[in-house]
Write a structure and sequence with these properties.
Length: 488
């Protein structure tokens, strides 16, 4: 019998990408194989994100197309998993009957069983009824698993299921306990649950044994790791020390952090351990104390800057990345200019910049969305321009230096390879040698672009890594750098 095929599309953050790898692990353990194209799949799954409206809109559009396909392929299993499944389950059940399974982020652990039940139910439905005559007659299996289920962290990860041979994400915690007024994550992913250090060290060792040399630790508020592991002395600082001891691990990073948990102990670890990447994603969100209070971020601009001052006093080469929201309810021009001032003062290397969009179920959704779209767009473009200038200056500062680059793959432009430095700086260099992927190579930077650098590959017998793409680099730059992200 031919093995059933699945196709999985993932939207959203790095955590979603890792969740998709865990889902694939379960399906492959059950005998499923990945379809090359969605049209060839017996099971089509969409791993969804609810943080921004744009991500949701893409999912609704895709589901509409799958409804048409299911009219002629009634045994096709259509599944929505992740945050939208958690948030919109009632709407999907009521208005999108062609969806066969709806599985929330806390119920990935037995998703193979859920898929099998949906396939069985679909076969029964096909046997019981005539082919659909109208789009309204398309019926799915109606399998729902959201609020209660087996966590994905219970999955014995197949470390071979990952897109990059030398790089891997590793979830160290799930959920979030922070009360940010605009954020849907606590609703869709629940309270913080940290994984034991021993389990994480075991998984990291298995990844490294399979060829991984760079691991990025994931958590919604990653530097709050361990608060729920009472009596276990579990902190991010201790975990980093444990993982740093794995001999073949070359780089170790973590995202995303909250300013309130940038502790002295964590700063000391960042200064002491050479394998730790030299960038920190520490979202400020706004440069206005009034906005930070309205957003319920739990710190002031002064406190944020003090934490950065403490960080740079011990780790002066640490590159700082941030997130900013423009157009939050009540944001005045003065509030916005304070954000511009903070960005210029701290000279962030990269920033994700988003136009505020209310998320149902959050506290801010109850507020009047009083900043018009045109003004949100203007403020968004202003911050993008400021960040582009800052990024270009940061990149110009490394021209003439030789940096170590982990080669990630071929560029979209023929004849080039691409990769990143320990500071997460995107580097392009001329090469057609695919054997460089996964190696760490020295590249001398010759040109700075707005969002990346161009360099020349040097002899690399003693090194191991990679780079990305020039006139075209400028376009590719815009496409890939966080400074150019503008969400709504």
């Amino acid at each position: 019998m031919t093995a059933p095929k699945y196709h999985l599309t993932s939207y959203g953050c790095q955590m979603n990408k890792l969740d998709s790898e865990l889902v694939e692990t379960k399906l492959q353990q059950r005998g499923y194989s990945a379809a090359t194209a969605e049209a060839d799949a017996d099971v089509v799954l969409i791993n969804t994100c609810s943080v921004r409206q744009h991500a949701e809109d893409r999912v609704w559009s895709k589901l509409g197309k799958l409804r048409i396909r299911k009219r002629t392929e009634p045994q096709l299993v259509v599944g929505v998993i992740g945050c939208m499944a958690q948030e919109h389950k009632r709407y999907m059940l009521a208005r999108m009957p062609h969806i066969d399974l709806i599985v929330g982020p806390s119920a990935f652990g037995d998703i193979d069983d859920t898929v099998e039940k949906a396939r069985t139910r679909n076969r029964e439905l096909v046997a019981q009824r005539e082919p659909a005559r109208t789009k309204h007659e398309v019926v799915g299996a109606g399998m729902v698993s959201v609020d209660h289920g087996i966590s994905g962290d219970s999955i014995k990860r197949n470390v071979k299921v990952r897109p990059h041979q030398s790089q891997a994400y590793m979830s160290i915690m799930r959920g979030c306990n922070m009360p940010c007024s605009y954020c849907i994550v606590p609703t869709t992913r629940g309270d913080e649950i940290s994984r034991p250090i021993a389990d994480l060290v075991d998984e990291a060792n298995r990844l490294v044994d399979d060829g991984v040399s760079e691991i990025t630790l994931l958590g919604q508020t990653v530097n709050a790791y361990g608060r729920d592991l009472k009596g276990q002395d579990a902190t991010l600082a201790r975990l980093l020390r444990e993982l740093h001891g794995i001999p073949a691990l070359r780089r170790l990073a973590f995202i995303t952090s909250h300013p309130n948990f940038l502790s002295p102990d964590l700063i000391d670890v960042l200064a002491e351990l050479p394998k730790l990447s030299r960038y920190l994603h520490l979202p400020a969100q706004s440069g206005s104390n009034a906005m930070l209070k309205a957003m319920r971020r739990g710190y002031t601009v002064e406190r944020y800057k003090k934490r950065i001052e403490q960080l740079w006093a011990k780790v002066p080469d640490m590159e700082l990345h941030s997130d900013f929201i423009v157009g939050y309810p009540g944001e005045t021009e003065e509030d916005f200019e304070a954000t511009v001032a903070l960005m210029k003062e701290l000279r962030f290397s990269q920033s994700y910049i988003f136009k505020y969009s209310p998320r149902p179920g959050t506290l801010s959704a109850e507020l009047v969305d009083d900043v018009c779209d045109a003004e949100k767009n203007r403020r968004n473009q202003v911050l993008l321009a400021v960040q582009e200038e800052l990024s270009a200056e940061r990149n110009q500062a490394v021209v003439g230096s030789t940096v170590e680059v982990l080669v990630e793959g071929e560029s979209k432009v023929a004849g080039r390879m691409t990769g990143r430095t320990s500071q997460h700086r995107l580097i392009h260099f001329a090469s057609t040698d695919k054997q460089l992927v996964g190696q760490y190579v020295p590249v001398t930077v010759t040109e700075a672009l707005a969002h990346s650098c161009v360099g020349d590959l040097q002899g690399h017998d003693a090194a191991e890594g990679g780079a990305h793409d020039l006139q075209y680099d400028r376009d590719l730059d815009h496409e890939q750098d966080p400074a150019q992200v503008s969400g709504s």
